[in-house]
Specification:
Four copies of one chain form a homotetramer.
Chain A: E1 6-12, H1 16-31, E2 37-44, H2 48-58, E3 62-64, H3 67-72, E4 78-81, H4 88-97, E5 101-105, H5 112-124, E6 131-134, H6 141-151, E7 158-166, H7 183-186, H8 190-206, E8 210-218, E9 223-225, E10 241-243, E11 249-256, E12 261-267, E13 276-283, E14 286-291, E15 297-302, E16 307-311, H9 334-349, H10 357-375, E17 381-382
Parallel strand pairs in A: 1-2, 1-4, 2-3, 4-5, 5-6, 7-12
Antiparallel strand pairs in A: 7-13, 8-11, 8-17, 9-10, 11-12, 13-14, 14-15, 15-16
Helix pairs in contact in A: 1-9, 4-5, 5-10, 6-8, 8-10
């Protein structure tokens, strides 16, 4: 890649998302013929020691402990935000103001107001400065193939969307009160964390928008043990638990702009389902079904027949040709590699990457409509434009 | 069976339901050790010729063209109602008044008022006169086994019910306006026909009741060609279609009496799904999943592990011991054989058969709440008691 | 059916096969428009009391205790043989000599010599006297559909057949020495009982014949507890077991007449597999896969794509149109109903039913070649003509 | 990783295997806490230009065009052989003689004689010099978990192994005569390329050895178009094809050292199967089933029940804890990352890596026995020690 223009990347956060983004930045150039060669310039975290260890392990050239310093680095042209949602807006707005491209983890922000500020900042930036929200499931080859089928009209008029994101990691009432269960840090619970993914995926694959919803949310376990050191010495049992301030599960039904009916369910209480991000779409001519637990498969029904299990590993399938021979599957991390490949191409060519911050805001507004509906007795609630 | 007391059966209707009930009456004694031997005394239909042909083909000893005459026959002690929903109430009330046991196809009636009249008639009858509504899916061995798992507490507290009934037989807009698409005859569309099954199954398996719902319904194809001769000679194209007066699809979310969230979807527009009556239940300790398209399988997750595919064909599984060795599956019709076996046992022992007319009324009230919610912008609507 | 010519049936044996054949005779007329109406004239067993009870329960008009008397009855035109293999030849030869049509359970006989005698008797009978061996799996709708695909050339040249019949009912070494584990009664073990089914199915679906094999057989558990009363009072432990004289499992590979390679495995030691009769066929243009544990499904790959799950319940699928709407599956017993329907049509029209006794003999010769190969160190052994 | 001892790696070959090994070397340190930090020192290929491009793309510090020069480099302590089988022996023997650790792609060599030479070289090397053959499927988490189940005795005595490796990439007779279809380069066809994987996997998971086999091989398409430039200008049609000198498919049955029966099938003619490397094992207490096309799943039956689908992504599953949360699957390349992790640990700790060259030789001897059996009319042939 020595003859390619390099572009410096600075990443903020080194936990789950930071690790998977690092693997993507590290790998993308070996598989895709990129217009720009990414250079893993610097990583940023609050603890100097831990950030330096992460830099060494994950392959970043430098470590920063202040995200503002990271943004200001001359060798950083792309800022990759992998922090919890409460800091997305502040970092993204600052990075865009500094003329840096921004790739931001989902959900775009914890509130609609923050997301709007981010969209304004993206609009205010020069058109050569790109921003993108990291709904990585769009880059599952099977989901990108599903999109292609709909675009080509092979499904006909869409009648139904059935989207579920089922996990089970907090079924145990003794599971502690981690930050993802606290509204001030996470913004929302299952609705924001995984419900956002299925709203984006449904809109992406159908090319339609959710226009109104009726919603129900629930927090099955109201209080949980405090996590780690915060419980403290001598804490009484009563003092050692805290309130869960986000939803455990959210269900909503609604209508899409093209006339389809849609059903959504996001939950962390589906015992036995580990990461069942499922999408089924029925059209007048055909249907599609997907489950991320078998991420290399897309099930397609056409001509009134049964469902065909397509292994999405053929050379002409989205992204798949860059990897291995047919039948040799990909994993979770590859969705991020694909995302970064598309982002780098947009940066290089001047195209607008997708999903944009505006797309991220739209998802946020759907989630907000669900919350308003749930608070208003399930009344059908229009998604605001 | 010569030494057993026989009991005479009279059946009204000889279409789809009449054929499958006949097979059940004809077969039940060969597989189950019954307290009463059913005798297929008479069948009733409007056309003398067709009814007589049906009697010959299906194995009924006599044919009647007036259901009142059938009820009055001395050799008929059980009246089996296999007609469309608009005639259920009148026939059932008359049969009960005549002291006959009644097995009535679902949905119990086309309206809550009719269903209430049937419940009153059942209550007014002597306690020895039995009545039952034919929600046959309760008698799928896998669903009965699911019920057993919940009763035994193996799933823990129920958190989620996910129920779908997906068909695709009217996806084609040229499919004609058959009686099931006309409100005066069918009462409702997908909601009443197949939505009723999943409401009953969800309540049966969980042992809980749906207490409130938010609903959406849709008729995707508003007008359809008139069926058969009714189109008439010289009809212009405009005259040759009629209005579809029932729903094509119904979605609703709600709460169960035990605190679970539930999601329901009934549709005739799920291209590629032929008879996908699906039920998934998540509890604090385990989960269950079922799809009627693979009716001999129940999927069970316990102890946080994956889902085990249980072939529900073992001798100790519900109903299965009466049939074939393990792995030799049953079909659709067997659910009716099981239903009739249970009904005959109730008649013989004096126990109350289940689901009762009151259970059928409850399902009707849930459906009515869905319709009221859908008409009221999806507002969460309590199911009336 | 009053206006149809009836034909009398006499059945010998009332155990597993007798029960399922009875259900087929009882049901066939209600679903298929038959040229002859079968009349269940008489059933035959050794115990008078048990046979009379079986007649009453299964719907036979009379009971006999001597199969020769059954054959001689004027009201019996069809003899249905449901006994163990050691009596097939004697009964079938006598019945054919008496001018009766014969339907005989599989395997045709316990030895090639017996099977040859049966083929000779069938050939010696007038052409209006029909005989058929009951390889019921040919009448699974999915397998009949598979045959249709091959016949239509949709698979191209056949390259591979992969056939397995996996059960687990004798995995427990304490399972007793029932008749199926004794060579004098059963002829062979897994090889004859279930291996015969997959040989017939492979030949039927491909339209080719097994021309040579290399085989391995094994008896994992050499001695087993004597079953029931035969163990006797005061028997010492050593005396209370008997030798297993048949194979527990048989594996063989071979070539088909059209050039395909084939792999067969029949075993009663596949823990967790209940009745996994599986067939996969790969051709130059497409492939098929089937597993009886999901008997309503056929998996088809065409055009280099993935496998489509076809629910074999459509009106134009073999046999399926006579039953229920799409997606409402059939069970094990229906394969026998279909078999009897085809047999009755052959008897009425004069066509030769299939599989013939000659077909049954061919299967026997394949099994014999497997045994010879296994006894001769696996040497590739030609199947004799 | 700056404080870790680094170890230099030199890799020979940059095609399919070179690309996937590179990804593994590049990634392993970011996910596993290694005792040695690998440094991607040099890559070797015949074309200077292509090798330099590969070095740049795949992340190697230098490029060599002579494998002997690569071996001699001071910054290379590990030689990773990713060439076709005909050069394995020469390179490996030289590398071991030079005191370099060797990781060699499978099959170990094209002939038993070559493999024996490699085993001798490995034995002659100092014990601190390690060698390993790259049967990567052992490092599929699901297969490693299967091994654990067998080791723990959860399956009981093993009765059956059913191993298949099904591909379809040369079904088309117009597919050209690539090197994998030429005996002088590839050694064998499906038997060596993919048959070797299933023999190794079967022996690894069961802990038993194949002791004898009966085999059949076939070349369905005898001549194929010459690939690329070799066809030449003016070549007549007859001249433009070449002979296929390896098998298209190989079937063999045999016995394992512990008494189990085993069935193997390797083919490139299984239309619709892309990379179906399947393994099913039945024991007295339980069974396992695996298919690489769904590589994150292991199916387990215990206690006589059905098969449980285990997503092998839990923290306590082999290798899985280093990656993502439960339900977030891995892909093909991860098996190589795991292999390299284990190899580096063996190098660092002095343990003997597995599978050893001796293991690779054993697999070779099984394949040779299959070929001898196939050439000798399928006679059961003992595997030589």
């Amino acid at each position: 890649m020595s003859d390619k223009t390099t572009i410096g990347v600075g990443m903020i956060g080194y936990a789950f998302m930071g690790r998977v983004h690092s693997q993507a930045w590290r790998s993308v150039g070996a598989f895709f013929d990129l217009p720009l060669a990414p250079r893993m310039a610097a990583i940023c975290g609050r603890s100097k020691e831990r950030t330096e260890a992460a830099a060494a392990q994950l392959g970043w050239a430098a470590a920063e402990t202040d995200w503002r310093a990271l943004i200001e680095r001359d060798d950083v042209q792309i800022v990759d935000i992998c922090t919890p949602g409460d800091s997305h807006a502040e970092i993204a707005v600052a990075a865009l103001a500094a003329g840096k491209h921004v790739l931001c983890e989902k959900p775009l922000a914890n509130t609609v107001a923050e997301a709007e500020a981010m969209v304004r900042a993206a609009a205010a930036a020069p058109s050569s400065v790109k921003s993108m929200v990291a709904f990585n499931y769009r880059r599952v080859p099977a989901i990108a193939l599903a999109r292609r089928y709909v675009e080509e009209g092979r499904l006909g008029e869409i009648r139904h969307v059935r989207a579920q994101y089922l996990q089970d990691w907090i079924v145990d009432p003794e599971f502690p009160l981690v930050w993802r269960l606290q509204k001030d840090k996470a913004g929302a619970g299952a609705l924001g964390d995984i419900g956002s993914h299925i709203v984006d995926a449904a809109e992406y694959v159908t090319g339609q928008q959710v226009v109104g919803v009726s919603g129900l949310t629930e927090t099955f376990v109201k209080r949980r043990p405090l996590a780690g050191e915060s419980a403290g010495l001598g804490a009484s049992r009563a003092e050692s638990t805290g309130e869960v301030t986000v939803d455990d599960a959210a269900l909503f039904i609604g209508r899409l702009s093209g006339g389809a009916l849609a059903s959504f369910e996001a939950t962390r209480f589906a015992t036995g389902r580990k990461n069942a991000m499922r999408l089924e779409i029925n059209g007048g001519l055909g249907s599609l079904a997907f489950d991320f637990e078998s991420m290399n498969e897309l099930w397609v029904s056409e001509g009134g027949g049964g469902f065909e299990r397509i292994l999405v590993t053929e050379p002409d399938h989205p992204y798949a040709g860059a990897w291995w021979p047919p039948g040799h599957g990909l994993g979770y991390e590859h969705t991020f590699t694909h995302e970064i490949k598309d982002f780098l191409e947009a940066v290089a060519t001047g195209a607008d990457p997708s999903p944009s911050f505006a797309d991220g805001l739209r998802v946020q507004r759907v989630l907000e409509a669900v919350e308003r509906s749930a608070a208003d007795g399930g009344r059908y609630t229009n998604v605001e434009d």
